[in-house]
Specification:
With 541 residues, this protein is an alpha/beta fold. The chain is built from 17 helices and 26 strands. The chain binds adenosine-5'-diphosphate (ADP).
Length: 541
């Protein structure tokens, strides 16, 4: 027997309509590429989104067309998220840190019709113009009097808005209509596309709003350092308006001092981003000997949050939520805010230990770990295997890529994350490594994340990474790459002493190399691929 309930298709524009009616005092504040601060509320935002949608239709955009963006975190980018998907087109966010070849590849692969570009990225696009598809229309996201948009090649964003009508009847779209497209950063091979739907996006917004509750809500102000140009800024463009949270966008200024100032001025309560960003902010906090005024919690994900970072934030009174996810999961899979009952039962040290895990699954995401024969392993905190996931906001295939799709799923339709993990009896995920980053030493596996986590706690270390280098006898051995904190380099003996309090002797790195900075990926994480290439001929003694 079927239930007798109405079926209403889930639709992204409904989130902004809701925010406009119910959270009209919550703001979107943006540090613009023009250099000044722009602020308006969700009602103003919707009003401009209506005009943008009409402008898109005026430019010939139809349902299913892909419209690309190459932009920082700011209100115009947010408007594009809603305007494009609202008319049934697909908002394809491009990561400006990709190589020009990768950008060209995905623009062509996606079949983009329009490309919206922040002024900062105009020079990149100008260089690419001879190779870009001839029918691609480029719109610069700038004020109508900005000189960079005077070129015949480009249209101007504000001019389009100015000339468009506010009146619109949003189309009724089946909820499985595609709404967003994001390519993985393509660390190996070409980038692969995740094609989000209205349904997956709205469900993801609902579950993150529920599960990451302490950082969202009416009166709260959230700073997405995590970019709108990659994985939907972890869903914040949707979860924030849905919950009435104000969005504070940092534009292009992501260094510690700029973030500190912005957070201080705008009374940011919660900030979300990858660990490398927080290294900069913590340095600024130490320098100023205070935290930004209303800073309450930080959501850390994208790569493992080192224990020393978690301890430092918590000692400053800032709650850490260690989260995990991936492009293919919209992206949030797990989150690490501890429930009140658990906090009461655990000492501070025990709470920190819990937070070193990647949190527990959000509603709508199922997790399983399997051995090499695809047998499910117990969630006992000991057994570790490849992590598979399923859920309503997880891809069912890669966009126009059958080969990658065939490789990614098991017989039961679960998606293989490529991460190696264990899961504790109380559901905490412990990511040991990406399968390709694990170090295979004489038939045993060494987790690079475990070593990095401990080494990051040494006062002479500012940042570090562990990679596998070839070894004649053991196949691979760990090499530790360190960025020093200050002028004195830590010695191998000091590192070994620290590590031996946590890991076995055979897991110790064989050697240490020092660099001025670690190479980063397009998503701001440490690029192990680049490090592996750099040290591919490394000779261990
Ligand atoms: P890319 O950076 O390659 O585009 P994603 O942004 O989708 O890809 O990154 C997903 C991957 O990042 C995960 O599969 C996992 O390996 C890693 N990751 C994400 N969050 C964490 C975390 N909290 N701890 C450890 N690894 C993480």
């Amino acid at each position: 027997m079927l239930g007798q309930m109405m079926h209403r298709d889930l639709s992204i524009i409904d989130i902004l309509k809701f925010a406009s009616e119910n959270h009209s005092l919550s703001e979107v504040v943006s540090l613009r590429t023009e250099g000044d601060m722009h602020r308006y509320n969700y009602t103003d935002c919707l009003s401009r989104v209506c005009k943008l949608a009409n402008a898109l239709v005026g430019l010939g955009i139809k349902k299913g067309d892909r419209v690309a963006t190459l932009a920082w975190n700011g209100y115009r980018h947010l408007e594009l998220y809603y305007g494009i998907s609202g008319i049934g087109a697909v908002c394809h966010t491009i990561n400006p840190r990709l190589s020009p070849e990768q950008m060209l590849y995905i623009i062509e692969h996606a079949g983009d019709r329009l490309l919206f570009v922040d002024t900062t990225f105009v020079p990149i696009i100008e260089k690419l113009i001879p190779k870009l598809p001839k029918n691609l229309v480029i719109i610069v996201m700038a004020s109508s009097d900005d000189s960079s948009t005077l070129s015949d090649n480009f249209l101007n964003y504000e001019q389009l808005i100015l000339e468009s009508s506010h009146d619109i009847i949003w189309p009724e779209l089946p909820e499985n209509t595609a709404a967003g497209l994001c390519y993985t950063s393509g660390t190996t091979g070409n980038p692969k596309g995740a094609l989000y739907s209205h349904r997956s996006t709205v469900l993801h917004a609902l579950t993150t709003s529920l599960n990451l509750g302490p950082s969202l809500g009416d009166g709260m102000k959230v700073l997405p350092v995590v970019p709108l140009f990659h994985v939907n800024a972890w869903g914040l463009p949707y979860a924030a308006p849905l919950t009435g949270t104000s969005l504070i966008f940092p534009g292009p200024n992501l260094d510690g001092a700029s973030l500190f100032d912005l957070m201080d001025q705008e009374n940011v309560n919660s900030a979300w981003g990858v660990p490398t960003v927080w290294l900069g902010l913590l340095e600024e906090i130490r320098k100023q000997e205070r935290v930004p005024s209303q800073f309450q919690n930080v959501v850390i994900g994208g790569s493992a949050a080192p224990k020393s970072m978690i301890e430092e934030f918590e000692s400053l009174g800032i709650t850490v939520c260690h989260a995990w996810g991936m492009t293919e999961m919209s992206p949030v899979g797990t989150q690490g805010f501890l429930p009140g009952s658990m906090k009461k039962a655990l000492s501070q040290d025990e709470q920190i230990s819990k937070k070193c895990y990647q949190g527990r699954r959000v509603f709508g995401v199922d997790l399983k770990i399997v051995d090499e024969n695809d047998n499910s392993l117990p969630h006992d905190g000991i057994a570790s295997g490849e992590l598979y996931v399923r859920g309503n906001a997880i891809i069912s295939g890669y966009y126009k890529n059958n080969e990658a799709t065939e490789e990614a799923f098991d017989k039961e339709g679960w998606f293989g994350t490529g991460d190696i993990a264990s899961i504790t009896t109380d559901g905490f995920l412990n990511i040991q490594d990406r399968a390709k980053d694990l170090i295979k030493s004489g038939g045993e596996w060494i987790s690079s994340i475990d070593i990095e986590n401990i080494v990051m706690g040494h006062p002479k270390v500012a940042n570090c990474a562990v990679i596998a280098v070839p070894h004649p006898k053991w196949e691979e051995r760990p090499l530790l790459v360190i960025v020093s904190n200050g002028d004195t380099c830590v010695t191998k003996k000091e590192i070994d002493e620290l590590l031996l309090t946590h890991i076995a002797k055979w897991q110790l790195p064989d050697a240490i190399e020092f660099l001025d900075a670690l190479p980063l990926t397009a998503t701001g994480k440490v690029s192990k691929l680049t490090l592996r290439k750099k040290f591919s001929n490394y000779k261990l003694n």
